[in-house]
Design brief:
CATH architecture of chain A: Orthogonal Bundle
Number of strands of chain B: 12
Helix content of chain A: over 70%
Largest interface: A-B, 38 and 41 residues
Helix content of chain B: 55-70%
Oligomer: heterodimer
Number of helices of chain B: 23
Distance between the termini of chain B: 79 Å
Strand order of the largest sheet of chain A: 1-2
Distance between the termini of chain A: 34 Å
Number of domains of chain A: 1
Chain lengths: 283, 581
């Protein structure tokens, strides 16, 4: 059994790593829960954003926050454009899954053609910076990611709960026709939501560029875990997605510390299977 | 001899023979491995379609079964020196067992349909991959197959693998063809369209889904077993990767996953495409091209290429326009009501969470009787129908049909014992023609008969309900009146002892209502006992021998129609106290 310090450090790193799961899960959760579209291309969009941030940073020496200011609105546009396709062809859930998978494959091919299949690393001065709190180390970038994810999740949750637009969106999910009869412009809201989802991919991508090593095939590494997070966190609930992400991150990290790193995938999927079979009220 | 029928068979036999002998023709080994890959993907995608295409349970976990089969052969052959061919049965059986275990848990849960089933199967794949990686099955080092002797069925090793893959491919296609024409296939197609209705019409949905899942997984497993020898060096990352489930889905969807040979067409096209972009960056471009093709296919050919081509080839037959049902034997002598109870409902309760929908209902219906079930909205009429037909389990009480307790039976069993029902909003199987809808109901609801007999009977009931000429029309092409009558035809084709009708008249115009009333009388004349829910008082009074009034989940009044309808208490629950005087 590892020491308490090691377990504590594992817990901290796990929760922080889970912030990334949560950030990626939020956009997916919104489009799946509120638009009934399963967007596999979300991961590819995040990596596209990451590669652009990397390219701007290494070739043109643009600071990542300025890159983000460029990439995030661009992603919003891509998300809205993608929704045009779904809307135009009245795509259902399973078809959306296949189409966005194809989009992801195409994006992966495009990324590989331009940036090659080699691993890329965006070196910055602050990549390895960390704060020392007692016996524990807290990496600054991951902490920033979690703070951003927290603010976004909280803000989106409030937006859906409290504002008219948010309520209108949730009403449309329950019954689009009735909501329309009450004057909800579902189509317009759907474009907004798709754009926001993709913009989140842009934000996640910025952090991926700073934290992770980039390779085209890496697009698929988080797919399984993040879908588990989306379902456990409840479809359409950004706050739930973030919390589920952190919970799974922590559980994985503890499993790695106690057993061996290779067992980590079992944790998230076992959690997913248990939650699906158990079928608790909050799901 | 029928030349037109024998010709395709002869051609198929010749083609199979020619393909089987291809490796002996002295072609470069390149062709052996190219065709091997075609057979590989045809078998995998066709086996996927057995569950996911036919029954609509979209699985992303095909790699799990393929991988278990592959590792079964690899471990047995490389670590325990079992002869390669002897490992193949195990490579089929183990994944099939795994599928049965997973299915036995997952198929009981109603919410795990659609995309949640897809993601659950994907999750299972990742779990199995991790277990294989971290246990001595693989241990992370991979398994070399080079020491495993390959029996020389053909002159070259690639020829032998070609032959094995070919045999599996032909067998898989034969199985898919057989299933699509069998009772099992009909049941799976019904499950695809509407699982609850399929169950209510007598399809043993749970058993059928398990069978299809096991068959699908078993084939994937044996394909994996052969593939272990083809790849030679086995790793977890190379086996349980996303490519398998996604290509399998892609190929099936492209070709048409509800058709037995649709996946084969899709697999052949895509494999050829991928093979022509085989190296390095080209492979990446190939994947992107496949991606574009899939997007285009889903947007423009959502049912797949094969159904689209079939539709295009089929000459458009103008549906013969014959409105106004000719209800066959109109004035039949009224059968006497027996003194035996056909249905005995005793103290039946049904709770939904805290809501008591039925609070102890007692009702006897005699053989040959027509009982009208009325009551205000929310009084529990449809719930009672749903409980009798087994759609909802009972919370309390007993239900007996013809003296046999049916309260605890699954819905399909209740249907076999002679209970048929219609739905207030018609729920036909959307991808089956009107005739196929009736045939399916007759096959699963009625006694076991020959297909030709069933077809004749289905045609009879379609004529009886005035749907002649609409046999080949899909339900979407029928109007509400016709769809309601299709519901009736489906219920009648099951030859029920007890027929439960849920608001068959709602939404019909007065002429159609008259028509329907005559029809219900004609049905009773054939010997069925009928319980019908209805709001239209004219029909209730004209048809019922007795009327049962439900209010707030309890039997409120029961008796002859005119007396019950004049009862001030009954009037008050419908119109309020002021009118009760």
């Amino acid at each position: 059994m590892p020491s308490a310090t090691l377990l504590g450090q594992a817990l901290i790193s796990g929760v922080l790593a889970g912030g990334m799961y949560g950030l990626l899960a939020m956009g997916l959760s919104l489009s799946w829960g509120l638009l009934r579209l399963v967007n596999l291309s979300h991961f590819a969009l995040a990596f596209l954003a990451a590669y652009i941030v990397y390219e701007l940073g290494t070739t043109w020496h643009v600071a990542p926050w300025w890159s983000a200011a460029l990439v995030v609105p661009a992603m919003f546009g891509i998300g809205a454009a993608q929704h045009w396709l779904f809307d135009r062809f009245r795509v259902n859930e399973l078809a959306s899954l296949l189409i966005t998978f194809s989009v992801a494959v195409i994006l992966e091919a495009g990324i590989q053609l331009y940036w090659t299949a080699d691993f890329r690393r965006y070196e910055t001065d602050y990549a390895t910076l960390s704060i020392k709190a007692g016996p524990f180390f807290i990496p600054v970038l991951e902490l920033a990611l979690c703070l951003v994810a927290g603010v976004l999740a909280w803000g989106t949750w409030l937006w859906l709960r409290k504002t008219f637009v948010g309520k209108a969106l949730r009403a449309s999910v329950e019954d689009a026709d009735i909501a329309a009869a009450y004057g909800v412009n579902h189509k317009q809201l759907a474009y907004l939501l798709s754009g926001i989802g993709a913009a989140y991919a842009g934000i996640a991508g910025t952090f991926i560029a700073l934290i992770a090593t980039l390779a085209p095939a890496e697009i698929w590494t988080w797919l399984g875990v993040v879908f588990a997070v989306v379902i456990i966190g409840r479809l359409g609930n950004p706050l739930g997605a973030l919390l589920a992400g952190m919970a799974i991150g922590a559980a994985q990290s503890l499993a790695m510390a106690v057993f061996s790193p290779a067992w980590a995938p079992v944790v998230s999927f076992s959690m997913l299977i248990i939650v699906l079979l158990w079928d608790p009220e909050w799901l | 001899m029928n030349a037109a029928r024998d010709l395709p068979r002869l051609a198929a036999a010749l083609a199979i023979g020619a393909f089987a002998l291809l490796p002996t023709a002295g072609l470069p080994a390149f062709y052996d491995s190219f065709f091997y890959l075609v057979f590989f993907w045809v078998s995998l995608s066709t086996s996927w379609a057995l569950l996911s295409g036919f029954a609509g349970y979209f699985s992303l976990g095909h790699a799990a079964f393929f991988g278990v089969g592959l590792y079964t052969t690899a471990v047995l052959a490389a670590k325990f020196d079992v002869p390669f061919l002897l490992t193949l049965p195990a490579a089929a059986i183990l994944p099939a067992l795994l599928a049965v275990v997973i299915g036995a848990i997952v198929f009981r849960l109603r919410r795990l349909r659609g995309e949640l089933f897809a993601l659950l199967t994907l999750a299972v794949t990742f779990v199995i991959a991790t277990v294989v990686l971290n246990t001595p099955i693989d241990g992370g080092g991979g398994i070399f197959m080079s020491a495993v002797p390959l029996p020389s069925l053909m002159a070259t090793p690639t020829g032998t693998l070609y032959l094995l893959a070919f045999v599996i491919c032909v067998s898989t296609l034969a199985i898919a063809w057989k299933v699509s024409r069998s009772r099992l296939g009909m049941g799976l197609f019904a499950i695809h369209d509407d699982e609850d209705v399929a169950e209510a019409k007598g399809v043993p949905t749970f058993r059928y889904k398990l069978t299809a899942f096991a068959l699908s997984a078993g084939i994937a497993g044996i394909v994996g077993g052969v593939h272990a020898m083809f790849v030679g060096f086995i790793t977890v990352a190379g086996t349980f990767e996303l490519t398998v489930p996604l290509y399998v889905v892609l190929m099936s969807v492209l070709g048409g996953s509800r058709s037995w040979f649709g996946p084969a067409i899709g697999a052949t096209v895509i494999t050829t495409l991928l093979y022509s972009f085989s190296s390095g960056d080209q492979a990446m471009i190939g994947r992107a091209v496949v991606g574009f093709i899939l997007i285009a296919a889903i947007l423009w050919l959502p049912d797949g290429a094969v159904p689209a081509i079939a539709k295009w080839l089929k000459p458009r037959r103008a549906a013969s326009v014959r409105t106004g049902a000719d209800v066959a034997p109109a004035a039949t002598p009224a059968r006497s009501i027996g003194d035996r109870n056909m249905l005995e409902v005793r103290g039946v309760t049904k709770r939904f969470g805290g809501l008591l929908a039925l609070g102890g209902v007692d009702l006897d219906v005699r053989e040959g009787e027509i009982v009208g079930l009325v009551g205000p909205n929310g009084s529990g009429k449809t719930t009672l129908i749903n409980v009798i037909s087994g759609h909802y389990p009972l919370s309390g009480g007993t239900i007996a049909l013809d003296g046999v307790q049916i309260g605890a039976l699954p819905a399909h069993d209740i249907a076999h014992r002679g209970v048929a029902r219609t739905y207030q909003i018609p729920r036909p199987f959307a991808n089956m023609t009107a005739l196929e809808n009736v045939v399916a109901a007759a096959t699963f609801g009625g006694p076991v008969r020959k297909p030709a007999e069933i077809r004749d009977e289905a045609l009879h009931w379609m004529a009886f309900t005035g749907l002649s000429g609409k046999e080949d029309v899909l339900p979407a092409g029928l109007n509400l009146h016709e769809r309601k009558f299709l519901e009736l035809a489906r219920a009648l084709a099951a030859r029920p002892k007890l027929l439960l009708l849920d608001e068959v008249l709602s939404g019909l115009n007065p002429a159609e209502v008259d028509n329907a009333i005559r029809l219900v009388r004609a049905i009773r004349a054939q010997g069925a006992t009928i319980v019908f829910v209805e709001h239209l008082m004219r029909a209730v009074v004209e048809l019922s021998d007795r009327v049962a009034v439900l209010n707030e989940g309890k039997l409120f009044a029961l008796g002859a129609p005119r007396e019950v309808m004049r009862d001030p208490r009954v009037v008050s629950i419908y119109l309020g106290k002021a009118y009760a005087a």
